UniProtKB/TrEMBL annotation:
This is Adenylosuccinate lyase family protein. Residues 362-441 form the Adenylosuccinate lyase C-terminal domain. One of its GO terms (molecular function) is lyase activity. Keywords: Lyase. Belongs to the class-II fumarase/aspartase family. SMART domains: ADSL_C. InterPro entries: AdenyloSucc_lyase_C, Fumarate_lyase_fam, Fumarate_lyase_N, L-Aspartase-like. It comes from the Bacteria.
Length: 447
């Protein structure tokens, strides 16, 4: 697969450089050495053995290509990794290596270790988005624009409210990710720590599990979770929730940036958004990258969800199917949020275009408040009919809605022009928009 051309552009390049085969080897080694240290501390390994293993293996050149090839016969990366590690140790230490562990302990724990810096990076990017969102909300809390439902003009809102929804969605995702635990995995062959030694060691397994978690900076689970995939389910769905929020932002921006609307635009940059054949175009490329990454995350998470029920004490293909989608989801989301943060920080907002689009219907967008104004004078049915007729006339003739209403024969002598003008002014019909922006900012700042 030409990943560098088709897959990697949607991902964070920083994350790609950090989350590679070498990092996976280092994470697996970190688990094995933490386990050995904990075992030695409880007398299950000879004194000094964990340090000797660390000294030997920390600089050992593990053969990534050979480990990758070995997955074809062993089924996972831990089996050839453990073989290479044991072969590199002196005879006196071979029995101390990987004692009481199973391949799933190594792989699951390594994946959790790989996710630690990724979640920190995602949190930092989401915080950037939040700060940028708050700045936009403050700047545009009173900027009126068209609110659209079913892709059609509906009633006025403010741009500050729109940004508030973007920011709140992203922040809700950030808080959800922050609650996700990354637990260590250690249970041995069938999850009950039966490979630790002879009689008298049966109560050591859970203690070792907790201590390895502490040494690695991971959460300590209640029990080993070999076929209890709730940690993966929680992590995957949290990543997907953030992806959905980022996709919503990108979709809205792309729609508002259409030539005919022109209410916002992506930040300008040399070559950004250029077309291969049309020099005049300024394509919303950042939005496309965000949405492309998010769609892939949604697909990857469906794999994780479909692998959540695993048989007996070890998954048969379900566990194996989780690895790539989990890591790819994090890398894709990090790439999407890098684009989202840049998008929000440099978003070009065009209030004049927003005012122009509010006037596209000649003011007919205000038919609802006008109908309410007319009810006391002409009754419910007539009010609705007259306001709709006037809106259509304004749209077809290009006249101002207020002028059409003022000239309507059924309204002569019943309403003054000032009352009609106020009722048909979008800037005076923004509901709780300003209060919503203030409430959103307070909630975001309280995080």
């Amino acid at each position: 697969m030409p990943a560098a051309l088709l897959q990697h552009p949607f991902m964070s390049q920083t994350a790609l450089a950090q989350c590679n085969g070498t990092a996976m080897i280092e994470a697996m080694l970190a688990f094995e050495l933490a386990l050995a240290e904990a075992q030695e501390a409880h007398g299950a390994l000879p004194e000094g053995s964990s340090r000797a293993m660390r000294d030997t293996l920390a600089a050992h050149p593990f053969d990534i290509a050979a480990i990758a090839e070995g997955i074809g016969s062993g089924g996972n990366a831990a089996i050839p990794f453990v073989k290479q590690g044991r072969a590199a140790l002196p005879e006196s230490l071979k029995r101390c290596w990987h004692q009481g562990a199973t391949s799933q302990d190594v792989v699951d724990s390594a994946l959790m270790l790989l996710m630690v810096p990724r979640l920190k990076a995602l949190d930092a990017l989401l915080s950037r988005c939040c700060r940028a969102g708050i700045e936009l909300m403050r700047a545009h809390q009173d900027t009126p624009m068209v609110g659209r439902t079913l892709m059609q003009q509906a009633l006025p809102i403010t741009f500050g409210v729109k940004v508030a929804h973007w920011a709140i969605g992203l922040e809700q995702g950030r808080r959800r990710l922050a609650e996700v635990e990354l637990p260590v995995q250690f249970g041995g062959a069938v999850g009950v720590h039966s490979g630790l030694g002879g009689p008298g060691w049966d109560d050591l397994g859970l203690t070792l599990m907790d201590e390895v978690a502490a040494r690695l900076g991971l959460a300590a689970p209640v029990l080993p979770w070999h076929t209890d995939r709730q940690p993966i389910h929680a992590l995957g769905t949290a990543l997907d929730a953030v992806a959905g929020a980022a996709e919503k932002l990108a979709l809205d921006v792309a729609l508002l940036a259409q030539t005919e609307l022109g209410e916002v635009a992506e930040p300008a940059a040399p070559g950004m958004g250029e077309s291969s054949s049309m020099p005049h175009k300024r394509n919303p490329v950042r939005c496309a990258l965000i949405r492309g990454a998010a769609r892939q995350v949604h697909g990857h998470v469906s794999v994780l969800l479909n692998a959540s029920a695993q048989p007996l004490e070890r998954g048969l293909g379900e566990w194996h199917a989780e690895w790539a989608p989990l890591i790819d989801s994090a890398l894709l989301l990090e790439g999407a949020l890098e684009q989202a943060a840049t998008l929000l920080e440099g978003l070009e907002v065009n209030p004049e275009a927003m005012r122009r689009n509010l006037a596209v219907t000649g003011g007919g967008i205000m038919a609802e408040p006008v109908a309410k104004l007319l009810v006391p004078s002409v009754g419910q049915d007539a009010a609705k009919r007259i306001s709709a007729e006037a809106a259509e006339t304004a749209r077809l003739s290009g006249q101002a809605y207020a002028a059409v209403l003022d000239a309507h024969p059924e309204l002569q002598g019943k309403l003054d022009a000032e009352a009609i003008r106020k009722a048909s002014d979008p800037a005076l019909y923004l509901g709780s928009s300003k209060h919503q922006v203030a409430r959103a900012i307070a909630w975001l700042c309280a995080s």
